Amino acid sequence: MNDIPARDALCVIWSSPNPEVADNLVFMYTQNAVNKSWWKQVRLIIWGPTAPLVASDEPVRARLREMMADGVEVWACRACAENYGVVEELETLGANVLYVGEPFTEMLKSGWTQLTF
Predict the structure, then answer these.
(1) pLDDT bucket at 93, cuts 50 / 70 / 90
(2) What is the pLDDT of residues 9-48, one digit of tens each?
(3) Closest residue by Cα to residue 104 from 21, 96, 60
(4) Segments of the chain assigned E as strands
(5) Domain layout of the chain by residue ranges
(6) CA torsion sign, 78 to 80 to 84 to 89?
(7) CA dihedral sign of residues 96, 37, 60, 84
(8) Beta strand 96-98 pairing with 113-116
(9) Which CATH architecture has domain 10-95+110-116?
(10) Between the CA of residue 79 and those of 17, 25, 58, 86, 113, what are the distances in Å?
(11) Which has the closest alpha carbon to 16: 44, 48, 39?
(12) What's the whole-number average pLDDT of the chain?
């Protein structure tokens, strides 16, 4: 995937549509993980019911844009985005909208650390 060792890479699966979980856990840890150099690579995956939250909530989108500017990679599950009808909104945000099953499996097999919220 890249030259960063998997032991230095973190993948955060964000599936809770609760905005409080986003603000007070997912975003806080993910952004600090990059800004404080806890991990060399941080990838946040929008998966499941978080897709419509991102599409409809401007404060959430603003925070994601800020995190992307800081270096967090933001991916979104294309199948979920299609199911919720929000592909365009996620692409406009700048998320990498793709079918994540296979690349996520490869990340796990290669040793990435994974958190799920």
Answers:
(1) very high
(2) 999 999 999 999 999 999 999 999 999 999 999 999 999 9
(3) 96
(4) 9-14, 41-46, 73-77, 96-98, 113-116
(5) 10-95+110-116
(6) negative
(7) positive
(8) unpaired
(9) 3-Layer(aba) Sandwich (3.40)
(10) 17, 25, 22, 10, 23
(11) 48
(12) 96
Closest-CA residue to 59 (of 30, 32, 94, 27): 27
Global pTM? Answer: 0.94
DSSP letter at 7? G
6 confidence band (pLDDT: 50, 70, 90)? confident
| Contacts with 46 (C-beta within 8 Å, 6 or more apart), sequence order | 14, 54, 74, 75, 76, 77, 80, 90, 95
Token readout for 72 is 């967090």
